[in-house]
Design goal:
The complex is a heterodimer of chains A (178) and B (208).
Chain A: H1 8-23, E1 26-31, H2 38-45, E2 51-54, H3 58-70, E3 74-80, H4 81-84, H5 88-97, E4 101-106, H6 119-131, E5 135-139, H7 145-157, E6 162-167, H8 169-172
Parallel strand pairs in A: 1-2, 1-3, 3-4, 4-6, 5-6
Helix pairs in contact in A: 1-2, 1-7, 3-5
Chain B: H1 13-22, E1 28-31, H2 35-43, E2 49-51, H3 59-69, E3 75-80, H4 81-86, H5 89-97, E4 102-108, E5 111-112, E6 118-119, H6 128-135, E7 139-143, H7 146-155, E8 163-168, H8 183-199, H9 201-204
Parallel strand pairs in B: 1-2, 1-3, 3-4, 4-8, 7-8
Antiparallel strand pairs in B: 5-6
Helix pairs in contact in B: 1-2
Classes of the chains: A alpha/beta (178), B alpha/beta (208).
Chain lengths: 178, 208
């Protein structure tokens, strides 16, 4: 859906995310699959230093990474914006204990969406995260992703905060319905 | 909904948890919100205990993240049937990851103890050990008797995981024994005990 016309910059951002995660010492990668994260998930699976944990629901990942931090490990949670709603109560654990949490959220229902059912959660994703105590760093252009993620990972792991980088649907690309 | 409370077992939850923890050695413990936290506190508060006072449904997954992070240490999760039912998907996620060092024990009184003793699904036949087995746990059993419990305790910290046991207990309520409840305190205490000051950057003030 994106390869045929995408400039190099657009193709490379998942690789840039992967490099930032490696540099940040991330060893647990929790995810519910999303088309926007497909390339990144492949890269993580291929890396022996990373344990990839596929989830049945996103809140599992919030709990998983709390346990990881208890054990001295750093993780990242990859999800689509629709999964943010599944996380809300588990984020209270993160806020109460001040666990570091780094999330990368690919947006739906936000830019050029075809499926109206994606719009309600997509439109409330940022406010839902902020209400749950998560700092949200939106990214609208691919060239800003790596820089933003570095800053977010420092905020998470050095300042012990919950941080989500939300990647606009403008970057990920709208799903093509044929 | 006229079925009577669990009468298939005479096991007492406090005695069960005490026996489960008697042989723990240096095993790390995660407890779920509610009664299993009071049970563990009644046995004795320890730095290697992390009590999850909220986040219902998350205890098993916190245990999984910890078990993956510390493969050299045994991790024991003790939680309730209501807490486990809220995170049923964790059976599948844990089984797929297949941590050899994780044991998951549900103290199953078939009731939501903290909210007025309403029945949980296990009272009506939902078989958590069956779920664990079907998901692919290395071993899964239901414990009804003292003999079953003795057998479980003999392998709880040694048998390859992921190990699951659903321990049926009587619906008796005990005195609420409260461990520390400040989340940041529990987190720091646990990490300091496990990792020491050098690795525990929040205490050491290390710049990274």
């Amino acid at each position: 859906m994106k390869d045929h016309a995408a400039p190099a910059e657009v193709r490379d951002w998942p690789d840039e995310i992967f490099q930032v995660l490696c540099d940040a010492g991330v060893t647990q990668v929790a995810y519910v699959p999303d088309a926007g994260h497909a390339r990144l998930i492949e890269l993580c699976h291929a890396n022996d230093a990373m344990r990839c944990v596929a989830l049945t629901t996103e809140e599992e990942g919030v709990a998983l990474l709390a346990g990881a931090w208890l054990g001295g490990a750093r993780g990242v949670l990859l999800m689509q914006s629709s999964g943010v709603g599944n996380c809300i109560n588990m984020l209270s654990v993160v806020q109460e204990c001040r666990f570091p949490l780094l999330c990368i959220v690919t947006m739906r229902g936000e830019w050029g969406e075809f499926n109206p059912w994606q719009v309600p959660m997509g439109q409330s994703t940022t406010r839902a995260l902020e209400n749950a105590g998560v700092i949200v760093k939106p990214v609208d252009t691919a060239s800003d992703i790596a820089t933003t993620l570095v800053a977010a990972s420092e905020l998470a792991f050095n300042a012990f905060r919950a941080v989500a980088v939300s990647i606009s649907q403008r970057i990920v690309g709208s799903k093509v319905w044929k | 909904m006229s079925a009577s409370p669990n009468t298939s077992t005479s096991l007492d939850r406090r005695e069960v948890v005490s026996q489960l923890l008697a042989g723990r050695g240096d095993a790390l413990l995660i407890t779920g919100l509610g009664s299993t936290t009071w049970d563990a506190a009644a046995v004795g508060d320890e730095d290697g205990n992390f009590y999850v006072w909220g986040g219902m449904g998350g205890a098993a997954m916190i245990g999984l993240g910890l078990a993956i992070a510390r493969p050299e240490r045994r991790v024991l999760v003790i939680t309730g049937d209501g807490e486990m039912l809220m995170g049923l998907g964790a059976f599948a996620t844990v089984a797929v990851q297949h941590p050899r060092n994780l044991s998951l024990v549900v103290i199953d009184n078939e009731l939501y103890g903290e909210t007025g003793m309403q029945y949980t699904h296990t009272h009506f036949g939902v078989d958590l050990a069956g779920v664990a087995a079907a998901a692919g746990f290395e071993s899964a059993r239901t414990v009804y008797t003292q003999s079953d419990l003795d057998t479980l305790c003999a392998s709880l910290y040694e048998a390859p995981g992921p190990l699951f046991a659903d321990v049926k207990v009587s619906p008796v309520r005990h005195e609420t024994v409260l461990p520390p409840r400040d989340g940041t305190y529990l987190k720091h205490r646990f990490r300091r005990a496990l990792l020491g000051d050098a690795e525990h950057g929040t205490l050491a003030g290390r710049k990274s």
